[in-house]
Structures are given as structure tokens and as C-alpha cells.
Amino acid sequence: MGAERKFKVIALSMGGKYNKVYNSGDEITQDSVEASVDELVDAGFLEELKAKKELIPSYKEVSSSEIKTMLAAKGVDFDDNASKKELYNLLK
């Protein structure tokens, strides 16, 4: 099963499931509406949001302590005595 598709409402407003009204700029999922999201995109009501690829700084741009901070934020376990290269490889 793939990632859940996300959309941005580009119409002034539109109705969704359970009589929910979405306004222009609202971000919704495909489960927010009863109609086919592909048809709503084609009709100009929605715009599909593409998944943003997480940017990882280059090896030379970061220090070991910065890499450790990023790993901790992601919840990745790491050896505090590991080399910078070993730590960096865990980011990928």
C-alpha cells in the first residue's frame, strides 16, 4: 500500500464527506471526499501535493554533533563513538 495522497483545495470552497466544507488553500487527503479525487483534480477543484523529499546536507557541510542531533530527532539509535562517516550513513 502506498503513501496516502494529499491534495490542496484550489476552488473557492468545496464539500467533502459528512457535509464538511473545505476552503481554498485547505490541505486534505483522498479520504476527505466521496468523489474521485482524480476527477476533482481534472475539474480544477483540487491540486495534488507531491511528497517532499527530505534534504540531507552534504557530508562536508555538517559536523558530527549536527549529525547526532539530526539522528536523535529522527529517533535513530547510534553509537556515540561512531565516526562521522558512519553517523552520516545512518541519515540516508
Strand order of the largest sheet: 4-1-5
Total of domains:
2
Count of helical segments?
3
Characterize the largest beta sheet: strand count, sense, and whether it forms a barrel: 3 strands, antiparallel
- Nearest-integer average pLDDT: 89
Based on CA inertia axes, which overall geometry fits?
elongated
Contiguous low-pLDDT stretches (5 residues minimum) are none
- N- to C-terminal separation? 22 Å
Total beta strands? 5
Structural class, from helix and strand content?
alpha+beta
Strand content: 15-25%
Helix content estimate: 25-40%
Written as H for each helix and E for each strand, in order along the chain, the element string is EEEEHEHH
Radius of gyration: 20 Å
Please characterize this protein's 3D structure.
With 92 residues, the protein is of the alpha+beta class. The protein contains three helices and five strands; from the N terminus they run E-E-E-E-H-E-H-H. It has a three-stranded antiparallel sheet with strand order 4-1-5. A two-stranded antiparallel ribbon has the order 2-3. The radius of gyration is 20 Å and the shape is elongated. The model has no long low-confidence stretch (mean pLDDT 89).
